[in-house]
Amino acid sequence: MRKSEQTRLSIMQTSAQLIYVKGYQSTSIDDILSSMQVTKGAFFYHFKNKEEMALAFIKELMYPGMRMMMVEPLLNSKDPIKTISKQLKDILNNKVHFDMRYGCPMINLIEEMSPLSEAFSNSLKMMTLTWVNAISDCLKRGQANGQLRPDVNTLEVANYMVTGYAGARNMGKIFGIKSYQSFLKQFSFYMESLR
Amino acid sequence: MRKSEQTRLSIMQTSAQLIYVKGYQSTSIDDILSSMQVTKGAFFYHFKNKEEMALAFIKELMYPGMRMMMVEPLLNSKDPIKTISKQLKDILNNKVHFDMRYGCPMINLIEEMSPLSEAFSNSLKMMTLTWVNAISDCLKRGQANGQLRPDVNTLEVANYMVTGYAGARNMGKIFGIKSYQSFLKQFSFYMESLR
DNA sequence: TTTGAAACATACCACTTAGTATGTAATGAG
DNA sequence: CTCATTACATACTAAGTGGTATGTTTCAAA
């Protein structure tokens, strides 16, 4: 019961990497299998089909990873505006988990899959909402502390931030790092105007 | 020489519609042909291959369409900030050329194809830059008229606006119309802060 | 009216695709 | 040890893929 779990995990990890680079629809099962030491029998033993595998990796790998990187840094912050601006900068400049050319795995999947599959759409929607709500809560705490104007609609600002992030990941694919820097600068102007 | 041009155009138009909905890579040539009264012989008579066809439709249909909808409204504006905010609203709410579920054809292609093909990337980059520059020029005229703070970096603001647009199209796919409205409201706050 | 190029139409091909059928090896409870 | 379940491995299939080869029709100039 131990090694098989590792096989299942490896399949999801390899898939995640390939889907990140090539997209879901043009990553074939054969692609996945030939880039690791696993056969088709193993794949269809662990997963009912390709879509179930992708949904599993979203739920079991992408979602927890997102919580760690996007949600946890927002808890217990002293200065929400600074925390949030800094988080956006940290994520966009994170070269370990992201490659500028390929953008953000979550945003990519929203772009590609949400119009094609209700199941994908729902998973991605919930994941995105988790981040949006975390940002909103963070801002609300700042509002309680008087660091943020009381008339600010925190949920709307949170949505605006995630929207900006998604756009930056898109523009980054053609314009490169410059577009990140440029975006971050203007976004921080916006954030400061909320004080 | 007349009817054949119509055939060529029809192929590109049908392709554009299918690619908009399903994406480039998962729209097959057979898909395109079976949704119109044209055969494979005609397709490969007019286009060398699938990619050349897509590049042709970007250049000959998408680009001119973009200029008409995104660039021309910005020429000869009296109040650039208002013009630009209004344009963004008009485009996002345009139900004739866009479907919320499928986002924006240009943004979709950037997302899907720019990491996979230099040729796509260059076409899309040039097209996007055309819009960015038009916005920047519009803002510059406002700056000359004193309607915009002189210290504002118009090119950076233009990039920021297009980035926001791209993000809004992405978020719209999962959150629907509400995310458009919410984004537009916050973006107009940002724009007003440039006066 | 002839004729040759342009504009298609049809049939086919090698390859890839998700998924299945059926085998065999590992493993852990009794 | 034993044996049934688990965890794979191998070989295959039917449908789809981009693209080609080879036709047949259309049409405009001579």
Protein architecture, described:
The structure is a homodimer of 195-residue chains. Helix content of chain A is 73%, strand content 0%. With 195 residues, chain A is mostly helical. Chain A has one domain: Tetracycline Repressor, domain 2, CATH 1.10.357. Chain A is elongated, with a radius of gyration of 19 Å. The N and C termini of chain A lie far apart (54 Å). Chain A binds chain B through residues 21-23, 25-26, 101-103, 107-108, 110-112, 114-116, 121, 124-125, 128, 156-157, 159-160, 162-168, 170-171, 173-175, 179, 182-183, 185-187, 189-190, 193, and chain B through 21-23, 25-26, 101-103, 107-108, 110-112, 114-116, 121, 124-125, 128, 156-157, 159-160, 162-168, 170-171, 173-175, 179, 182-183, 185-187, 189-190, 193. The structure holds a DNA duplex (30 and 30 nucleotides).
Count of discrete alpha- or pi-helical segments spanning 4 or more residues of chain A: 9
Oligomer: homodimer
SSE-based structural type of chain A: mainly alpha
Question: From N to C, what is the helix and strand string of chain A?
Answer: HHHHHHHHH
Q: Specify the helix fraction band of chain A.
A: over 70%
Radius of gyration of chain A: 19 Å
How does CATH name the architecture of chain A?
A: Orthogonal Bundle
- Overall domain count of chain A: 1
Give the percentage of residues in beta strands of chain A.
Answer: under 5%
CATH superfamily of chain A: Tetracycline Repressor, domain 2
Q: Regions of chain A with pLDDT < 50 over 5+ consecutive residues?
A: none
Indicate the CATH class of chain A. Answer: Mainly Alpha
Give the overall silhouette of chain A.
elongated
Number of separate strands of chain A: 0
Which chain pair shows the most residues in contact?
A: A-B, 45 and 45 residues
> How would you sum up the major sheet of chain A?
none
Would you tell me which CATH topology of chain A applies? Tetracycline Repressor, domain 2
Distance between the termini of chain A: 54 Å
The pLDDT mean of chain A sits at: 96
